[in-house]
Amino acid sequence: MGFFAVFFLVAASVKWKVRGLVWRAGVICALMKFFSPGVAVFGPMIGIMSEALALELAISIFGFNLSGFLIGGILAESTPLIQKIINYIIVYGWNIVIVLDKSAEVIIKTFGANGIKPAHLLMILFSVNIVLGIIASVSGYISGRKNTGRNFLPEFKQTDDTLYPEFVKANPKTIIVSVLLNTAVTVILLFFIKGNIFTAGILIVLFVIYSLFRYRNTARIFKNYKFWLQLVFFTSLSGLVFAYFSGFGLSKGIETGMEMLERVILLTVGFAIISIELRKPESVNFIRSKLNRNLSLGLNSAFSAVPEIISSSKGIFSLMRPAVFIEELTSMMDYWYEKFRVEIRNGKIVIVTGRQGAGKSALLKKLSEEYANTGKKVSGIISFAVFENGERTGYDAVEIPSMEKYHLCGIEETSGTKLGRYYFDDSVFEKINAKMEDSLGSSDVIIADEIGILETNKKGWYPLMEKIKSRADLPLVVLSVRKNITEEIKSYFGSEGITVYDLDTINPGEALEKILSNSVNG
After folding, report:
1. pTM of the model
2. Structurally, how many domains does the chain consist of?
3. In the chain, N or C: fewer CB atoms in 10 Å?
4. At which of 233, 250, 283 does a domain end?
């Protein structure tokens, strides 16, 4: 996977020459790993970021040229091996270095290669990674400079929203406490292993039982045969090396093997528990709510690309022609960029719909207050019904943030626009439209209530809608839309990427939480 990552990142860097592109791609990929199903989080996320930073560092120092990409590719391809070595030392302890060193010596002597040292074997492994890094970098460099002139139009698929957990109210305090407690327990038990293996063994068994009861997903660790094969191999090898090859005796060999066994189980379970806690919906949604808007949109686009890449391939037949498949994917970069650029612009529009009386205006009012409380600059207009003697006689419009009230329409006959039984004051629309259009460039959030039949006839808030449609640098726009014209309004803005919340199928409180946590608002 590292080989293909270097290839595509080099190709993209050659094609666009954007500083920071590589490390940002690393952040996106690491977050995709975090938000995707699975127990292992830390190792893959650290590996992804390490490779991206290594390549970015080389490009920053040597520039967007072949030498920069070569050095970056070599560093990026060597990073996984370095990470693997560090992981083994962390999980198995420093004894693993002695075990592997002595084992290599025995193997070398057995085959009579006395001139070779254990360090030479490590250098051979690094040499393989260096060669792969060079091949990936050169291939990506050639591919990035190459303009095939071929147009690939894949069958695009909708983003799989199930990759994200269902939103729940983000309160990660208990998760933070749990993570700290489990970390403390893991560290304390590590000291016990050094002090008293027997006592540590009992405590670790209790810790495992607790983890299986409290965190059922940890059972997946013990069902993985690769875990047991690796554990048995290294602990047995450790005992053998210390008992015989190093001359410490059988008791020392058994003690070292048991120490390694306990350490591996403890750290594997401890890290798994921390990962599970951090992957809980409360934690995930809290993290999502703290991501800035560009990062969130980039993450959504990356998740969208996954099914598109899959749909672009021909399954097993693509693997039979890897060079052609890679060339096709590289050639689609511009196509994806343009598609996602449009989606990101449109993705800043949220529509709240539902039947009359469903709570759209009240939701927008609460939404404006919540955004204002977080320091965001909110501009907009909210409409409220006016009642006399229990009868609805019109609507007032309240401007945000001044909270100035305007009489928008009533049943009294005027010279304004008539719609149904109501007469609308066109001068109010003109005044507020002008104010809101001026706010588009300086506001973080724009709210417009009651988009309806007037707007479909190019009246009411239609001038504001035109301004919104024409701008590429939109703030977040939240529109309340009559249900019978929702699809028409979506089509007007370009339905791709617009988020819709229907208050007939979701209660206003839940919709509020979803909008506030939604990736489109950062």
Report:
1. 0.52
2. 3
3. N
4. 283
